[in-house]
Write a structure and sequence with these properties.
The protein is of the alpha+beta class and 98 residues long. The protein has two domains: 1-58; 59-98, no CATH class. The chain has helices spanning 2-25, 30-56, and strands at 60-62, 69-74, 79-81, 88-89, 95-96. The longest helix is centred in the middle third of the chain and has 27 residues, at 30-56. The chain binds zinc ion. Residues 62, 64, 69, 82, 84-85, 87 line the site of zinc ion (ZN).
Amino acid sequence: MLAEITSVLGIAKAAIDIGKEAKGLLPDGEDKSNIEAKLIQTEKELAIAEAATAKELGYELCKCTFPPQIMLFIKELNVSRCPKCHHTTSKKGHVSYG
Ligand SMILES: [Zn+2]
């Protein structure tokens, strides 16, 4: 099930990228603004879905932004680190700064 969700998320991301490229071809105006707003909203919803999936997969989430950042594991340090604010989580679950 998770594999399917991850695959759908990838397809959705590709669709958003296509939308962004298509938007770039439009002349400035109301249509472009509407499409831009929809793309931003869709991207946000996708990020929420991505974060939820990451949590299901056992990833730590950083709450420095919403949607949350997905913390990536750093093998050498045995911690997860937020790509945005660089907070780290030790294996005890303690959050440290810097
Ligand atoms: Zn963070």
